[in-house]
Amino acid sequence: MMKKIAMGILAHVDSGKTTLSEAMMYCSGNISKLGRVDHKNSFLDTFALERDRGITIFSKQAVLNYKNTQFTMLDTPGHIDFSAETERTLQVLDYAILVVSGSEGIQSHTQTLWLLLKRYNIPCFIFINKMDLQGAEKNLVMTQIKTKFGDGCVDFSDDNSENFLESIALCDDALLEKYYNNEHIEKENIITAIKERKIYPCLFGSALKVEGIKEFLDCLENYTQMPYYGTTFSGKVYKISEDNKGNRLTFLKVTGGNLKVREILESDNNTNGEKINQIRIYSGEKFTTVDKASAGTICAVTGITFTHSGDGLGAEKDTGLPMLEPVLTYKVILPKDIDAHTALAKLKILENEDPQLNVVWNNRLKEIHIRIMGDIQLEVLKCIIEERFNFNVTFGKGNIFYKETIGNTVEGVGHFEPLRHYAEVHLILKPLKRGKGIVFKNRCKEDLLDKNWQRLILTHLYEKTHLGVLTGSPITDIEITLVSGKAHPKHTEGGDFRQATYRAVRQGLRQANSILLEPIYAFTLEVPNENTGRAISDIQRMHGSFDSPENTGETTILKGTAPVATMGDYTKEVMQYTHGKGKLMCRLKGYEPCHNSEEVIENFSYDCDGDTDNPCDSVFCSHGAGHTVKWNEVKSHMHLPGVLEKPKDYTDNTPVKNFEKYKTQKDIFALDKELMGIFEQTYGPVKKKNFNDTNTKRHIQAPETKGTTKEKQPKPKYIGEEYLLVDGYNVIHSWEHLKKLTEGDLEAARNTLINILCNYQGYCKCELILVFDAYRVKGKHREVEKVNNINVVYTKEAETADMYIEKVTHKLAKNHKVRVVTSDSMEQFIILGNGALRISSNAFLAEVRKAEAEIREIISD
User: Fold this and answer.
1) What stretches of 261-408 adopt beta strand conformation (E)?
2) What's the CA gap between 739 and 468, in Å, rounded?
3) Tens of pLDDT along 313-344?
4) Strand 555-563 to 550-552 pairing
5) How far is Cα 184 from Cα 238, in angstroms, rounded to an integer?
6) 427-447: per-residue pLDDT in tens?
7) For residues 295 and 227, is the Cβ–Cβ distance under 8 A?
8) CA angle 699–701–707, rounded 5-degree value
9) Are residues 526 and 583 in contact, defined by beta-carbon separation less than 8 angstroms?
10) Other C-beta atoms lying within 10 Å of the C-beta of residue 554
11) What is the rounded average pLDDT for all residues in the chain?
12) Cβ of 575: how many Cβ atoms within 10 Å?
C-alpha cells in the first residue's frame, strides 16, 4: 500500500519555494516541462497576480508520486502579508519543508514560520536553496541554522557516514545510548526522532538548476512515516474558495475513515446536514474526481455550504485560534453606483473564505472597514473583487488596529427592565497579563440565578466583540467573571439578558481605568558598524527600546521592540542609509500601552456615551414605564447588592419584597388606594363599581398585627358572585412551605396548593380560579380543569398567567367584585386599572391560615 504524506513547503519570500516545488515535480516525473516563476509559467502559481508579481498568494496543492509514496505538496505563500493563509494550511500537514536561502541565510519571516511549526508540532525537513549563488557557503549557513534552530538540525547529505550517526546520536539521549551500546542506530529510530521533532534533516542544492533535488526526494521518501488514522470519519477544513464556474469548494484533509460522494455531512450548527456532490483531487489547476477519499487524502468537495476555515468534521475537534494577527485596518472606498450594503454582502463572502480578512460595518461612521496584514494583500483583494464581483474599490489610508484594556478591578452592573421585561447582571472585570486575551469565568451561585440563565449570559459574553470606551476598539487582556444576576419568574426573556450583559460590560469599562494598547514589533536590526549611531537614533525616535548592541565583525546587531505605528515603513529607510547592506527582521510581539495615547484618542473622537449600539447606561422601570439611568447612577438603583462593595445603607429595591411588608387587609386596601392615586395620575381616572349589600359571602379578614385594636366590621355584601384569581406559581414561590416542596417535586407543590385552596373556597363560598403559567410548554390550547369546587387553568403556549389574569379581571370586574392574589409589582397597575383589588401572596396566606383555624373550630364543636 502506497503511503500518503501531506507535505507543506514554507519559506521567506523569494527563497525559491515555488521553484523547489517545480523541480521536485519535474524530477519525480509528475510534470514533463519545468516551469519558472520569472517566466510566469510555474505549475502552481495559477492566479494572474501571482504570475505578474512572481509570488505565491494562495495555498496550492500538487500530487507528487515518488517510488512508494504519494506526497500531496502544499505550496504556501511566503510573503508576510499572507501569513494567515500559510497558518491555516499548517493544520493539515504531516511534515513540512522549510526552505532557507543559502545566500541570504535565515530571514525574519523564516523565524516566524519556525515558531509556527513548533506550535503545531509539525516535523520539519530543511532545504538550503540557491547554493549556486555567490556568497552561499555550506558551513556558514549550517552554523547559522544550528544557532537559530538548535543542534537538532543535522546535515543529511551523507547519511551513511560515521560522522552522520554521531550527529544523530547527539540529538537525543535514547539515540545516544543506542549508539554507545551498538555503534549503530536503526533507520526506524531516526524516523521516529524526526516525527517527534528531535531531528531536523538538512540538505543543500539549487532548485533552479535542479541540483540536489533527487537526493532530497530520496530523503523524504526514506525518512517519513504515514500517520495512523482511525476508522471513524473525520476531516479538517483548511481553505474555502470557488472554482471558475462559481461552485463553492471546501478544501479538507480526511483525518479518519473514508469520505464518499453523496455522503451527508453535518456540523454543530447545521443539524439537517448537506450532501457531497463531488470529491476533487487537485494538482495545480487541474483536478480528477473520485468516488471515495480515504484517510490521509487532501481533497476539495462541492455541495456543502456551512463550512469555514478551521472547522472540524466528524470526529475531528477544532484547533485553537490562529497565532498570527493582522494589525492594520483600512476604509473601503466604493464607486458611486455601488450600494454600501450590497458591497458588504459581497465582502462577507470573501471573509467566509478568509476569516482573517475581518470585514466590519462601522455603524457610527457608516463605512466598511477591513483588517488585513499589509499593502500587498490590499492589491490582491482589489483584484479579487474586480474579478469576482465586477466593481472596483479603493482603500483609505491604513490605520493601526488598536485595542483597549483596564488597569484595575471593577464590578459592572447591567439592568434591563422596560415594561414586561426584566434582567440584571453583575460582572467582575479584572485586568490580566499582556497577551492573555479575554477570559470568561462563572462564579454565580445557582440559588441566586438559575443555571440556564447563567449559560445564556456566558453565551452573550462569548458572542460579541466588546468595545472599549476610549476609542471604541476591541478589549483584550481582561478576565470577565459572572458573579450575580436576577431574573423575573414571569417577565424575563432571553433577549433581556443579552441587553443586561452587554450593558454590564460597558458599565464596568466606564468605571475602570482604561488603557489604550498598540501593536508592538520585536525587531532584529543588522547594520554596518558605521551606521550604528544612525540606527540607535532612529529607534529612539520611533519610541523603541533595545538591548546592548552585539558586534559581529563588521556588523552591529540591535535587538529590541518598537511600535508598529512608527516602525512599519522603516525597512525602506534601512536599505537606503546602509546602501542595501542592512537587514531588518520584524515579528509581531503583541500589544503594549500606546506611546501617544492622548493623541490617538483625540484623533478617534469616540463618544462612548453617544454610542447607541453599545450603551453604558441601564433601563429601569418606574410608574409602569422603562426609563434610562446613567451608568454612574446604576449602583444606586440596582436590585441586587454589589459584590465588591456592599453599601452600608443597602436595602433591597426589589418591588416584590417591598410590598410584602403589608401584612393586614387594611394595609392592602391602604396600599391599593395609594397605588390607585399613582395610577390615576399616570393613566387618568378609573370608574368605580357600586355594589349593593345583598347576597352575603364569608370574607376572611387577615389577623391584626400586634399593638393594634381589633374592631368588628360588618361583613360586606355584594351583587353577583365574588371572584378570587390566584397566580399559582407566584404563591408557590412566596409561601416557604410550598417553595421547599419545589426543590424536590414541583407537581407535589401544585397539588398541595390545590388542596389548600379547595378547603378555602368551600369555607368562603367564592368563585376561585387558580392559574398556572404554561408559557414555555408546547400546546396551542388553554387547559381548564375542575378540581372539586375550584377551576384550575393552565395557560396556553405563549400566554403567561399575568396575561390571562388581566383578560379575566377586565371582563369580570364590570359586574363582580374581583380580587387577585399576586405579589407581582408589575401587575398591580393593570389590576387596579381593571377595577379589581390586589392582595399579596403573604397577606393571602394569613387569610388562608385564619380560614383553616375557623374550620378546625367548627369541626371541633
Assistant:
1) 264-267, 270-275, 278-283, 286-290, 292-294, 298-302, 312-314, 328-333, 359-362, 367-372, 394-395, 399-400, 403-406
2) 43
3) 887 765 444 445 677 788 888 888 888 888 88
4) antiparallel
5) 41
6) 999 999 998 899 999 999 888
7) no
8) 165
9) yes
10) 9
11) 81
12) 14
502-545 pLDDT tens trace = 999 999 999 999 999 999 988 889 899 999 999 999 999 999 99
The answer to whether 707 touches 714, Cβ cutoff 8 Å, is no
Give the residue from 232, 230, 231, 270 showing the smallest Cα distance to 250: 270
Identify the residue whose cell numbers are 538540525.
153
Residue with cell 390615576: 680
Read off the amino acid at residue 138: K
Cell numbers that stand for 662 in this block: 403589608
| pLDDT (mean) for 116-128 | 90
Dihedral angle of Cα 284, 286, 290, 293, to the nearest 10 degrees = 10
Instruction: Kindly state the DSSP code that residue 53 receives in the 8-state scheme.
Output: H
Tell me the pTM: 0.56
Nearest to 604 by CA among 518, 681, 543: 518
**Distances in whole angstroms, Cα of residue 393 to Cα of each of 328, 343, 349, 371, 677:** 18, 10, 16, 15, 64
Distances (CA, A) of 633 to 336, 412, 638: 46, 12, 9
Q: What's the pLDDT band for 697 if we cut at 50, 70, 90?
A: very low
For 398-413, b/e burial (b = at least 16 CB within 10 A) is bbbbbbbbbeeebbbb
Regarding predicted confidence, which is higher, 6 or 717? 6
